[in-house]
Amino acid sequence: MPRLSYLEAGKLALAEEMRRDPLVWAVGEDLGRGGVFGQYRGLAEEFGPARISDAPISESCIMGAAVGAAMMGTRPVVEMRFSDFALCAVDELVNQAAKARYMFGGQSHVPLVVREPIGIWRSSAAQHSQSLEAWYAHIPGLVVVVPSTPADNRALLKAAIRCDDPVVYMEHKNLWALEGEVPEAAEPGELGKARVVRAGGDVTIVSWSAAVHTCAAAAESLAGAGIEAEVLDLRTLWPWDREAVLASVERSGRLLVVQEAVSVAGFGAEIAASVAEALHGALKAPVRRLGAPRIPISYAPPLEDKVRVTEAMVVEAVRSMTAAAA
Amino acid sequence: MPPADTPPVSNLDVERYRAGFRQMCRIRAFEEQAIAAAQEKLVLGAIHPSIGQEAVAVGVCGNLRKSDIILSTHRGHGHTMAKGAEALPMMRELFGRDGGYCQGKGGSMHIADFSVGMLGANGVVGANINIAAGAAHAIRLKGEDGVVVCFFGDGAINRGPFLEGLNWAGVFQLPILFVCEDNGFAATTRTSAMTSGAGPAARAEAIGIPASTVEGNDLQAVDEAARELVDLVRGGGPRFLVARTYRLTGHTSSDAAGYRPQAEVQERWLNDPIENCRKLLEAAGVPAAELAAIREAAEAEMRAAKDEAAATGWPAVELAYADVQDVGDPRTRAF
């Protein structure tokens, strides 16, 4: 099985879909030169400047044009550079892309993918570091994808491009260089299916995006202390794999949700509430959430670190949950 | 020299403008019935009449093919009908009834008929400009020869998408005609009071898009301007048309428009585009009785559409959950 980086896997997925379907095209600032992180490097050479299209610094028009182009039967992949910048295009995404099919009574689909890199990424401060996935999970009509591995970045981006719904596709900037095995098979993944990162029966840790790796490391460390944590990577937040989460928590009796985003009104709250509603009697410990405090992200590393959920924090949370039940 | 009592010879394409007159009468009658229906609480949400602006919609759309595309605004009944949508499904949509163009899920501000290339009214001022640019971008990508027309009002030129969408159309040289319906008002405020600089045409020219201005209450003038521009746009680059007109009613059907003097409105009624066109046709030899009959037929058609829409039931409640999305469909996942 070949090893690819998360960045290369995403690039491969786009290239494969563009070879397969001439109506797939990508548009965003600096794409001709490879994109801000190099996720598009080499693609303009293969597909030409009309299908790997540069764009003015006009997030609103990049997104709005994608809506119009999608309604006309093409399948645009929109690059927003940073999810923070996509906020300049919220009307186009939320009022237009997400609503067009519904408010026009099913006359149109809007098959666009908006790639919005998220997450804390070495001293990038308050406008280049946010994780706003919960905003989009809140919006009817949108699919929200948050891949954590190279294999998923290939399989889920392919699925997103083939999906007829508008998909908010959130890659984590700190994962670009992460390498992993990517299956030879070029099949798209299934949107809405969680991945069991590690099986275990004492506690269920639910996470997504880069925080999955923090949880996996914490689970290894906990195993050394005799605590077996099951780590679930949701992979998509809408739809989210409620069945997999409930089944796991039913076995373990304990739920910890770990997210990089601000905890208040984050997507973890939805999972916690769903589990509390469905499995109240089966819980051996109160549901816990770990996420960022409700403060903007700082530039200076010691301040920036205040919003990070660390392996030690996950370990400590699990210990307190398992100790409380003992 | 012909004898003095011989009618002047007219070069007017009578058939063309009689059809345009009929379409303007239909739009006027539709909106008059819709306003009456709003007073009867048959129309449930806000409607934004385009009474007085019909010649812009008809003059422009009369130069489009069925496969060409338009994008409209919250004040979009005229554009929609001029592009070929039918009155009854429109009226049903305004009433929120079964058989409306959007299954009763959109109402007046989201009316659309993709089968005639009408890609939607829009509840957000200026939002259709970027979407229209993308529709034109898709035509270019697919190597087709279609044209996109994007209608918007003078109020929209102060929104960001005006800059972004026009720049986009200029950069990519897209087949799009921007039509600014300059009716003088941005909702209930005079646009001039809130607009710096020389206005829409100057802004378009500054972005490198050739702009022209036309008397928007003169069907013939709009038609001739649009014909030339659509020809230039098809297979070519963007153009910009300002159509000077006047909104004879309030911002919405429930807006009495007390912010403007009655004398001003009365004066503007003297430049009613339908009456202008009627006089044009009469001068070209069309009998007045024939023109009156066209108008009466349009009114009868729209009264019937109102009655039939009112007699139509509500959409099935299950439709509330339909057409949200395929992946994570609320009908298949209980949340």
Automatic annotation (TrEMBL), chain A:
Molecular function in Gene Ontology: oxidoreductase activity
Keyword match Zinc-finger: no
Keywords: Oxidoreductase, Pyruvate, Thiamine pyrophosphate
CDD domains: TPP_PYR_E1-PDHc-beta_like
Descriptive protein name: Pyruvate dehydrogenase E1 component beta subunit
Keyword Oxidoreductase: yes
Pfam families linked to this entry: Transket_pyr, Transketolase_C
Domain Transketolase-like pyrimidine-binding residues, every copy: 4-177
Species, as recorded: Tistlia consotensis USBA 355
Required cofactor names: thiamine diphosphate
Source organism, top-level taxon: Bacteria
Annotated TM spans: none
Entries under InterPro entries matching the protein: THDP-binding (IPR029061), Transketo_C/PFOR_II (IPR009014), Transketolase-like_Pyr-bd (IPR005475), Transketolase_C (IPR033248)
SMART domains: Transket_pyr
TrEMBL record, chain B:
Catalysed reactions, as listed in the record: N(6)-[(R)-lipoyl]-L-lysyl-[protein] + pyruvate + H(+) = N(6)-[(R)-S(8)-acetyldihydrolipoyl]-L-lysyl-[protein] + CO2
Gene Ontology BP terms: pyruvate decarboxylation to acetyl-CoA
A GO MF term: pyruvate dehydrogenase (acetyl-transferring) activity
Cofactor(s) annotated in UniProt: thiamine diphosphate
CDD domains recorded: TPP_E1_PDC_ADC_BCADC
Protein origin, superkingdom: Bacteria
Keywords: Oxidoreductase, Pyruvate, Thiamine pyrophosphate
Residue ranges of every copy of the Dehydrogenase E1 component domain listed in the record: 23-316
InterPro entries recorded: DH_E1, PDH_E1_Alpha_Subunit, THDP-binding
Gene3D superfamilies tied to this protein: 3.40.50.970
Protein purpose: The pyruvate dehydrogenase complex catalyzes the overall conversion of pyruvate to acetyl-CoA and CO(2). It contains multiple copies of three enzymatic components: pyruvate dehydrogenase (E1), dihydrolipoamide acetyltransferase (E2) and lipoamide dehydrogenase (E3).
Matches recorded under PANTHER family: PYRUVATE DEHYDROGENASE E1 COMPONENT SUBUNIT ALPHA, PYRUVATE DEHYDROGENASE E1 COMPONENT, ALPHA SUBUNIT BACTERIAL AND ORGANELLAR
Protein's recorded name: Pyruvate dehydrogenase E1 component alpha subunit
Organism field: Tistlia consotensis USBA 355
Organism classification: Bacteria, Pseudomonadati, Pseudomonadota, Alphaproteobacteria, Rhodospirillales
